[in-house]
Amino acid sequence: MFLKTLKKKLVEWLGPWAAYWTIRLLAWTMTFEEIHPEIPRRFWEKGTPAIGAFWHGRLLMMPVIYKGKKLSFLVSPHRDGRVVSNALKRFGFHPILGSTTRKGFSGFKRMVKAHGGDIAIVPDGPRGPRHQVQLGVIELAKRTGRPVIPLTFSASKRKIFNTWDQFLLPYPFSKGVFIWGDPIEVDPSGDRTHLEEKRILLEHRLNELTDKADQYFERKN
Questions:
Q1: With contact defined as beta carbons under 8 Å apart, do 179 and 36 qualify?
Q2: Which of 9, 70, 97, 151 is the 20 to 30 Å CA partner of 221?
Q3: Do 7 and 77 meet the contact criterion of CB atoms below 8 Å apart?
Q4: Which residues, other chains included, contact 87 with Cβ-Cβ below 8 Å and sequence gap of 6+?
Q5: Residue 14 is part of a domain; what is its CATH number?
Q6: Domain count along the chain
Q7: Are 179 and 151 a contacting pair, CB within 8 Å?
Q8: 36: left (phi > 0), else alpha (psi -120 to 50), else beta?
Q9: Helix (H, G, I), strand (E, B) or coil at 150
């Protein structure tokens, strides 16, 4: 029991620093391309808050691409989420503990208004199913009036882990690509049918972008 508790504590203490420096060192060795950077830029330049959405398995390098002024990041309240939360703080982001289920957004609207800025969400997190958008992110867009901007990442050389989210780890000195998709607007007065249509649209768009990113460097060769 003591060793198990010690292991958990070590993960919580060392995990955030390991994640932070992994991202920093990978970013230092890699070269990146960004497809359709004008999509988020027009929101950043106007100071219009938006919701960025990407799959859980593609989250590692996302801190590299953000160029806005203020970002809150929804993370799981479980142990793994706390590790991610503390790592994100080192990038200057504000973590908010919660989930993408509709129930998980209780009180979240007030937190969003309090902190302002953009929001980053993994809509298939924290535990899946993989690459299936949970309705909470669409509900959040409805309540806040913010558009949802899909985003994905892939690399020319990568390791895909046998985890529920098929976590992607780019190799050092590989090439990375970020691809932004068209924003999805949600009607504040939309009914359940409307919300489900937007949920399906976001899911399809994210999957299409991810497939494109995974094939991006193969097509260029």
A1: yes
A2: 151
A3: no
A4: 15, 16, 17, 19, 20, 23
A5: 3.40.1130
A6: 1
A7: yes
A8: left
A9: strand
- How far, in Å, CA of 167 to CA of 55, rounded? 9
CB neighbour burial string for 72-81, b if at least 16 within 10 angstroms, e if fewer: bbbbbeeeeb
Indicate the angle between helix axes 136-144 and 192-220, nearest 10 degrees: 110
In which domain, by residue range, is 192 found?
Answer: 2-220
What's the token pair of residue 12? 């919580």
| 192-220: burial string, b at 16+ Cβ within 10 Å, e else | eeebeebbebbbebbbebbebbbebbeee
3-class state of residue 52 by DSSP: strand
Alpha carbons 68 and 118: distance in angstroms, whole number: 8
pLDDT tens profile 6-25: 345 444 556 788 889 999 99
Q: Per residue in 112-127, pLDDT tens?
A: 664 678 999 999 977 8
The residue-averaged pLDDT of 184-206 equals: 97
Query: In terms of residues, how long is the chain?
Result: 221
130: left (phi over 0), alpha (psi -120 to 50) or beta: beta
